[in-house]
Amino acid sequence: MTSTVAERYRIIWCMRLHSALRTALACAIVGGATMYGPKFLVREIKFAAFSYLTAVLIVSDAALGDTLKGCWHALCATVQVVPVAMLARWLIAPEVGIRVGTAALAVAVAAFVVALPEGTHMTAKRIAFGQIVLVCSDAVVSDGGGSDGYMRPVYVAASTALGALASLLALMVPYPDLAYYKVRKLCRVYAENASERMNLYVRAFKVQDNHTKMALISQAKPLAETGNKLLHSIKSFQDGMKWERPWSLYLNPNLVGRGDRLQSMELPMRGIEYSLASSPAFPVQVDDKEHLSNVLQGVSNQLGQKIEQVKCFPPFYSMTEPETGQEFKEKPLLPLEPISRTHKSDSVHFFFSCIDMLLNDANFASEVRQNRHEKSIKTFRSWLLKLSKRLEFAIKCSLSLGLAMLFGLIFDKENGCWAGLTIAISFVKGRQAIFTIANTRAQGTAIGSVYGVICCFIFHYEELRLLALLPWIIITSFLRHSRMYSQTGGVSAAIGALLILGRKNYGSPNEFALARLAEVFIGLSSFVMVELFLQPTRATTLAKTHLHMTLCALQDCIKETRLYLAAETDNVSKFHEFRDKQRNLESLVCELKKFVEDAETEPSFWYLPFRTSCYQKLVESLSTIADLLYFLSYNFEVLQKLAETSTRRNELQEQMNSEIELFQENLSSSLKILEKAHLKESKADSQDAMDEKLRDLETGKLKNEENLSVISMADDKEKQRNAEEDEEHDDNKKNLDERRVQCLGAIGFCINSLSKERIEIEICIKEIERWEYQSSQ
């Protein structure tokens, strides 16, 4: 295992180093062209700093396909800005120029127009923002530029084109850096990671003591985190593959990539881990242990075959006809006759249900059907919400850039553009951790400027300064993957040194560095001020409000689950409605996680400290509930297909509906407690009720423990029926009966786990209420 982990980290490190070298090569091409290129080229490149900025934006952590896409975005931005800028400067008499206030107003209006359309990619918007800032600041500084001043925006276009061309050459020399090969390599690493995880899970299932079992599960947790990071990398390169093979999408627009296929494997693996963590070591007693050992060996072999298929996955899959690969229909199941039916054995059935889902790509096929369904029922119900978000984003960009340009030009007309350029590449859609971004960008700019000034002091020749720049580009490429600096800090550190070491004839490096730091502070201050003005609500408050919204969505999802379970056999529309609710719950949980992360990094100032640990537990429990609801629906769908008579099916539906109804009633009490916590109202009745529930939990008794036994009793009856029918039916019939019992056990495990997670939610909510009440006192 150690050698495999080392191999995985070596591959990831080599890929990052390779990307850093490509970025350094792109910057070297820009530096060589602007400092030592032909005179006619140097004469056209008036904004070399923007060439560096464009190259860093396009080539960072990119493959050839991503670079082609980035060049297209640069072209789109140039077409949006430069022709209009030339026309505007020609209309306002180019020999006169414009004033500072007029320039700031023009930046604000142009930024609003560029930011409003939804179809424009964010990279194109950032490049366009930078071009707007340069055009308007140049009109102020150059006093119009003479009779041919309306042609000066062409210099901005030429600088942008140089950065894009340098990025493209860096990805082509000495050989094309294709996203296809990176995805194939990452898929191989992911397959090895998944193989290690599944081996640990199977070993944890076999062990006899809880200490060894939990140790094995702990070893699998970092592998799961690494697997999620690998999936994120695969998905990021997946879009670039479409640009490398555009004809594939033209011939078949209904294609999904490898990342989507691999993502469908994560859900059953999370379920396997949860089943092991929620049950004691070896929770069932089996007489024929040799047969059980053969069963587990067969499962391990089939998992190995499945993971080998991951390495051979095609680049894209058709959504209309998914290729599920080899079907593992003859999956050996546990010998159910010798097993005594208890709640502990439900985890075993849930374990094998997740194995079955993983082997037969059931989740992927369901997602493909759901995607087709979503495309067919798409309406304009969310149009107003999207429009309001677009308007909010456009206003934010407009005010931030307008104020940054106004104050930056007033402070220093010659270097005023840096205030706008600093935040032009910082915009993202949606809410962001503004204090964290401002802090990392300021730190990155400072260390990059200091490095540039020191290198100018040590190296007096321009050639040596340019060589000193290359190792710094490599270092900052790794800084982008660090927690301290992240993407914003790493890019700022690279640009801070590039602007000093990669140019000439800009004056004293010390004075330029100080002037730029001042302008960066002005720009970031404008950015933070506008963010606080448009979104004054703190991330802590948003996390509390969003938690209540998520719990309401959970209640709606539970309600939809009841309707789905009560529906007729093979009711496709009810299943899709349930999946819509369940997906909405998943998205809300992801948003809640982001709010919690933002609130954790947000400074407290004079407010109460944020209870991070409780919110993290809530996110984990809500995420688990969302997964359990899907597992519940999956096993119920399989059970419907296996049920022989409508009478038996109706009995099962009634039993599960009663359990879901009880869960929904208990969840309503949690919502009431949360509302009281949000309003900081503490009442004795809620306190006593919660204390009683806590005492029940501490003593190991659940409120719905008697009701949960209904499923177990049904399973016992089912097992008895199976035992009687086994004498009259063949082996195929016996396998179907075993599948029924497995689904029943998995459903019982899901319902029992839902109740446990609900209690965990109530505990965390009550702790938040007590914390806020005591802090306010």
TrEMBL record:
Indicate the transmembrane segments per the record.
Answer: 20-41, 47-64, 71-92, 98-116, 154-175
- What are the entry keywords? Cell membrane, Membrane, Transmembrane, Transmembrane helix
Q: Where is the composition biased (Basic and acidic residues)?
A: 714-723
Q: How does it sit in the membrane?
A: Multi-pass membrane protein
**Know the name of this protein?**
Integral membrane bound transporter domain-containing protein
Q: Is Oxidoreductase a UniProt keyword of this protein?
A: no
**Stored InterPro entries:** Memb_transporter_dom
One GO term of the cellular component aspect? plasma membrane
